[in-house]
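Work Package 3 (structural annotation) set out to generate three-dimensional models for the target panel prioritized at the project kickoff. During this period the team completed the workflow that converts sequence records into discrete structure tokens, so that structures can be stored uniformly alongside our sequence database. As a representative example, we reproduce one entry of 404 residues exactly as it appears in the project archive.
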Amino acid sequence: MNKFKTLLLGTAAATIAATGAMAADAPMGREPVYRCEATGFIELPGTDVCFKVGGWARLIVWAKDDGAGDLTLDTVGGDDFGMETEARINFDARRSTDHGTVRAFIELNATNDDGNSGSTFGLRHGFAQLGNWVFGKTWSTYLHGASDPNGTWLSPIAHTIRIDQIRYTHSVGNGLTLSVAIEDQAYEDQGTTRVLTGAPPTGAVTVNANTGNGGSGENNVPTIVANINYANGGWDAQLSGAVKFNEYSDGSSEVGYGVMLGLAGELTQDLNLVLKVNYTHANPSYAFDWMGDAAPASTGIGGMTTGDDHNQFGIMGGIAGSLSDRVSFQLAGLWGDEDNNGSTQAGVYNIDQQLWGANALIQYQAASGFDFIGEIVYLDIDDKTSANADSDAFYFFGQARARF
């Protein structure tokens, strides 16, 4: 991609990259000898290890219109304005061996909890790599980071799954790679209990998202995931598939699956295209974030991923371009449909709704390693059930971030 892709796509792809030239022999003197060819890496003195430290600190300011539901992380009242601070640090150590690159990657993340001390670090990524094999927690093999629209951390414009897995990747050549993995069957899209107001016949209905994502019994078989990716000539395309073996608490079972197509490419020197289409059946943990718990709780998006025969279809995409060496922009849209009208699970709330939205974003590189983002998001939910929960909302997100 061209010069502004670095601004727009961030560091997600680099996190799971399996390439990078390693150091030769360990330096003999006391002082480090910077012979690692991978950008940003140094040799640890007395070793053959190339090492890198990275991360960021950022503040996100958010606001919403009065008609919108509470943001997921707004834990106090129904505020229309708030701030969220996030800090992240990662460590990347690599060495060359006769069996390929040996790599250890760790990334920790903490967000403010509105208290004096803040929250503790949580593990975003932690994996071991040997050549083409990856063992541990990192981005799902199902994902295609190149076709993700850009957004702030709180924005629902994303496709985010970090999951324990064993993955093997094979390079066919000419930009074509094949990956296959087994991923943790216990994974569920993180969420909290949602209360759906006005749901008949008894009024409010509580749905727990953590136990409802396509299976709430003893799921004993790992999810099988694979992708085929082609990246060449300024274009990056990927076809992904996932199969999940669900066992429900009533003793029944069902095979769920997901299929996704992602595309990113250079339309011109200063204009990029991103497009992603995703369908899941009884496997909503692999759906887009905006069809899960990232959306406002009171809209009904989130906590709705429960029961068998649960279908979700979503499309998102847009264009991104550079206005100057320091300023870039993005215009993106999304549409989705979900239902579980064929569910046989007792006590499952009926789902039949369509969702659509739009995103406009501008990013300014104020200095090396420091940027500002301004983002406006519109979401609309058309609930076709008798719950009559139609709603729409505007959100503003502003970000100031320093990276190293």
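Residues 376 and 396 are 5 Å apart (CA to CA).
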